[in-house]
Amino acid sequence: MTTGNQKPRRLTIFGSTGSIGQNTLDVVNQLGGREAFEVVALTGNSNIGLLAEQAKACGAKLAVAADDSQYATLKEALAGTGIEAGAGREALIEAGARESDWVMAAIVGTAGLEPTLAAAKRGADIALANKECLVSAGELFVKAVARGGGRLIPVDSEHSAIFQSLEDDQHHAVERIVLTASGGPFRTWTRDQMAGVTAEIARAHPNWSMGLKISIGSASMFNKALEMIEAKHLFDLRPDQIEVIIHPQSVIHSMVGYTDGSVLAQLGSPDMRTAISYALTYPDRAPLNVERLDFAKLARLDFEAPDEVRFPALRLARTALERGGVQGAVMNAAEEIAFHAFCAGRIGFLDMADVAERVMEDMTQFAPANSMDEVFAADTEARHRAGRIIAHKEMAA
Ligand code: NAD
Ligand code: MG
Asked: Which one of 94, 285, 327, 375 has the fewest CB atoms closer than 10 angstroms to its CB?
């Protein structure tokens, strides 16, 4: 935000057409719109109509479609506006490299890693929703941001809550963090019941409205698995300092436990705009039009221990955390392939964790990655292996 004659803050929004991207544009509008911010670039994948509409509405300088076959459509949709059009992977990375102050990383999956790295390297502040960047590239990603000189500000609601509950200079006094999880739509279901569900059923989240991948990941708790690894890298924690608790109301977004027994938490309505706004205004806060918590109406908050038998993704995350190295990249890549196969009706809901576990069993490189090339190599191999396991499962079915 700007005051007086300060220059507007320059923003880049990766994945502006998605759930987080659209919420980000809403927050930008609420916090002053064109008066306060200059949108350098927006990116989307295949929803070109929405991307062009967003670019016109916020006066973006550049709009990029990840899918390069969409270039002509995007160019035509932006004809006469003076907004530059781009398409394809290289154009996405170029958008990341283009000078701006703050970057919302809200592409889904590992596809967001290279564009976000390009922005990190030039020293932009990175508001990170795209958790797969950290799960996959871990320390290397954190180092790239630090070397570039920008700040890494979490957007994931749990990590924003922890970030907000961490006291300055008290890292040494942090005993544990407690990630809350709603438990998703199948919180009380048996494995037998879960075995036959379709993507349509699994995507119906009880509290949050989100993109497809994270919704399915909430049902399988793979999202929480990714978040455990995300937390390790963001807050430099040991695996034994990371706890998960089921909290069906999604009111406490997560907590930090200190060595004196105190627990600090951040609470709010399940609305991503609060975390996005905090990432945009940090270390300040700005007035935001989101629903306020009504504690009398809430009446109670419930908690229960997670069940790693019904939700094996949590157990896999522990394994990946303990092994370290490229195991995060391996788990993440295998899960991404299994997620697409589940959505296409090729494998069942429970097969997703099974595929990830088998790929992790087969790929036992635990040494820390020395370069992004090693991360990409592990990612590619895990995808191939997952593909083969899925094909076998299909043949056997
Ligand atoms: P979404 O599916 O709604 O949107 C994803 C965005 O990425 C869209 O703009 C899409 O066009 C773009 N995209 C998809 N595939 C792409 C590709 N191959 N290359 C480039 N761009 C591509 O997803 P979302 O729910 O907004 O989630 C985005 C990220 O934020 C994910 O990493 C998710 O885990 C994280 N996140 C989301 C929420 C939420 O409430 N939605 C909460 C916390 C974290
Ligand atoms: Mg989350």
From this structure: 285
Which tens digits make up the pLDDT trace of 348-369?
999 999 999 999 999 987 788 9
- Give the number of the atom of ligand 1 that is nearest the alpha carbon of residue 22: 26
At 83, is the secondary structure helix, strand, or coil?
Answer: coil
Q: Is the model's pTM score more than 0.85? A: yes
Reduce the DSSP state of residue 116 to 3 states and report it: helix
Q: Which atom of ligand 1 is nearest to the CA of 92?
A: 20
Contact 338, 394 (CB under 8 A): no
Query: How far away, in angstroms, is 75 Cα from ligand 2 center?
Result: 35
Domain extent listing, the chain: 9-154, 158-266+292-316, 324-397
Q: What is the whole-number distance in angstroms between the Cα of residue 157 and the centre of ligand 2? A: 5
Is pLDDT at 2 greater than 50 in this prediction?
A: no
The domain made up of 324-397 has a fold known as Rna Polymerase Sigma Factor; Chain: A (1.10.1740)
Q: Provide the pairing of β-strand 37-44 with 62-65.
A: parallel
Distance CA 42, CA 51 (A): 7
How far, in Å, from the CA of 106 to the mean position of ligand 2? 13
pLDDT tens track for 118-166: 999 999 999 999 999 999 999 999 999 999 999 999 999 999 999 999 9
